Amino acid sequence: MQNILEAPFLVEMVRTAANMYAHGWDERNGGNISVLLDEAKVSEYVDVNAVIRDIPTGFEAPSLDGKYFLVTGAGKYFKNVRYDPAHNLGLVRLSGGGRTARLLWGFTGGGRFTSEFAAHMMSHAARLSADPASRVVMHCHPANLLAMTYVHDLDERAFTRTLWRMCTECIMVFPEGVNVLPWMLCGTNEIGEATAEKMKTARLVVWAQHGIYGAGRDLDETFGLIETAEKGAEIYLKTAHLPVKNTITDHQLRQLEVHLGLKVREGWLD
Ligand code: 2HA
Ligand code: ZN
User: What is the pLDDT of residue 128?
Assistant: First the structure.
């Protein structure tokens, strides 16, 4: 058995949590990450038959039965992940149709998975149906996106079009746009189901007055999605109160679509 602290999937998780903290996206215990792992990879580092304890999930996710996830812990601070990964992270296998998470490593000191585990697992299920290579779900509280939800129309087409106009990269990075949920009670199966529904058509889902969810094939892609949307929101907030003299037009966005072969969300460009 190899040392899990040296596993590329663990090293990358630790680095990502530290980076997200450094970006100011994860104050206190804000934010959570989950990564779907292959059994073959996991078996190099843990005995998959040695279950430390079973943790009830409170929901069902039949399509994820038997799947392995590395996930951040409830109440844990991203700031601290790198100093004590085993305390702040856990590796679980879902069983019983998703009703149980079997702990194989981590959550030392009696911890459990993030309070947003339902939203994470339901989002994984939705993204895997849309893209079998999807592996990562990430949630955080980036200040500019959050601020934007206070002053911008929450209509997802309008919200997306504003972001697309804020920097050329935006439509290139998220041509399917950004979906938006109104404020809802977090940490519940209801917000999990609503997030997963939105994840069917986009890899980014804004939670108004709370934060954002991103999903992708790896941690870099997912981080980059949120980073780019957050940059768009930053430019918006820097300019929203000023007389706008120039913008990126729909014609120019169409040029990008054609030039790069983007799959832009149907009907979201004029
Ligand atoms: O885990 O971000 O949404 C803390 C949160 C809850
Ligand atoms: Zn949150």
Answer: 98
Pocket of ligand 1 (CB under 6 A): 29-32, 114-116, 139, 186
Average pLDDT estimate for 33-54: 98
**Rounded distance between C-alpha atoms, residue 162 and residue 232, angstroms:** 8
Q: Report the residue count for the chain.
A: 270
Tokens standing for residue 261: 């072969």
**Tokens linked to 157:** 């087409």
For residue 119, with 0-12 CB atoms within 10 Å meaning exposed, 13-18 middle and 19 or more buried, which class applies? buried
24 CA distance to ligand 1 centroid (A)?
Answer: 14
169 Cβ neighbours under 8 A, 6+ residues apart: 228, 231
CB contact burial 184-200 (16+ within 10 A = b; e otherwise): eebebeebbbbbbebbe
Quick one: pLDDT band at residue 232, thresholds 50, 70, 90? very high
CA 65 to centroid of chain Cα atoms: 20
Ligand 1 center from residue 32 Cα (angstroms): 6
Ligand 2: centre distance to CA 247 (Å): 32
- pLDDT tens for residues 177-206? 999 999 999 999 999 999 999 999 999 999
Please say if 116 is a catalytic residue: yes
For a pocket test of ligand 1, which of 28, 89, 116 has the largest count of ligand atoms closer than 8 A to its C-beta? 116
Provide mean pLDDT across the span 7-12.
98
Residue 116 pLDDT grade (very low, low, confident, very high; cuts 50, 70, 90): very high
Which residue's entry shows tokens 């007389």?
243
Residue 187: nearest ligand to its CA? 1
116, 156, 227, 230: which is the annotated catalytic residue?
Answer: 116
Supply the pLDDT for residue 96: 98
